[in-house]
Amino acid sequence: MRTTVTAPPALSDEDIPIAHKRHPWRWISGTVILAILGMLAYSAITNPRFRWDVIGLYFRDTSIAQGIQITLLLTVVCMLLGIALGIVLAVMRLSANPVVRGAAGLYVFFFRGTPVLVQLLLWYNLAALYPDITFGIPGVHLDANQLVTPMMAAILGLGLNEAAYMSEIVRAGILSVDQGQSEAAGALGLNRLQTMVKVVLPQAMRVIIPPTGNETIGMLKQTSLVSVLAVSELLYSTQVIYAKNFQVIPMLIVASLWYIILTTVFTLGQTWLEQRFSRGSTRHVPQSWSERLRRAMRIHAPEATGKGNTA
């Protein structure tokens, strides 16, 4: 007599029990940090010495708004100058000509080796060294006191200093591109400049963008140094106000809040650019801070459910 062995019924993905991994310390540490932040926020709100009424009064003051405009203008102009000159210096540092390579290296060595505040003061006092600027051209005589205004000194000091750092960032991005790309471009008949512009730099952008975003945010805050030159940016506008009303701490809080707001906006822009240039070059696109937070607080990863998997 033959016996028939029946196979057990196949289990679907929904029938398989899932044991969720617990992360108690993740929740405990998060709760402790939130509690500390809550205590700090409560202390700041209830402390009358913060003078939140003064902060609210001057937060949208006209002079503060004008200072923000000057800050943003300096940030954009100095970064554009730094990026443009940094690309030129990076190409020079990769040149086969030792004189060109050495000149670019000397530039980077000098501007990275001296504090940016010292450079700002040197540009502001350029007339003490060269009262008459001729650029070596006969018939050209420019008064340095009129040419190098505080705003011009700020742009020169911040922009030329930034170029030294941007040159290293761009050089690292260029070196990250495989040499075979340049060889293939040369085989297609492209010269060195065309290869750099059309082939190398577009691929190097995914390496250049993240540190450039950090440099832009740093430049935004670094513009506060030009307050020593009496340029009416955000910090200097704040100093002018508290010199009149003697509310030093509230006015510094106003400036800090605006710096935080502007930095947040620039950070969101940097994240968007990173995600855009990461398409097609990596499987893992950089996530936003909100996505990272939600992922960290999940009990288990979505793919652990087994749905959509094929044997």
From TrEMBL:
User: Can you tell me where the transmembrane regions are?
Assistant: 27-45, 65-92, 104-124, 144-161, 224-242, 248-269
Q: Which residues form a coiled coil?
A: none
Matches recorded under InterPro entries: AA_ABC_transptr_permease_3TM, ArtM/GltK/GlnP/TcyL/YhdX-like, MetI-like, MetI-like_sf
GO cellular component terms, semicolon-separated: ATP-binding cassette (ABC) transporter complex
| Membrane topology per record | Multi-pass membrane protein
A single GO BP term for this record reads: amino acid transport
**Boundaries of each ABC transmembrane type-1 domain copy?**
68-270
From the UniProt record, which GO molecular function terms apply? transmembrane transporter activity
| Keywords (A to Z) from UniProt | Amino-acid transport, Cell membrane, Membrane, Transmembrane, Transmembrane helix, Transport
Q: Which SUPFAM superfamilies match?
A: MetI-like (SSF161098)
Q: NCBIfam families per the record? A: HEQRo_perm_3TM
Q: Which PANTHER family match?
A: L-CYSTINE TRANSPORT SYSTEM PERMEASE PROTEIN TCYL, MEMBRANE COMPONENT OF AMINO ACID ABC TRANSPORTER
Q: What is this protein called?
A: ABC transporter permease
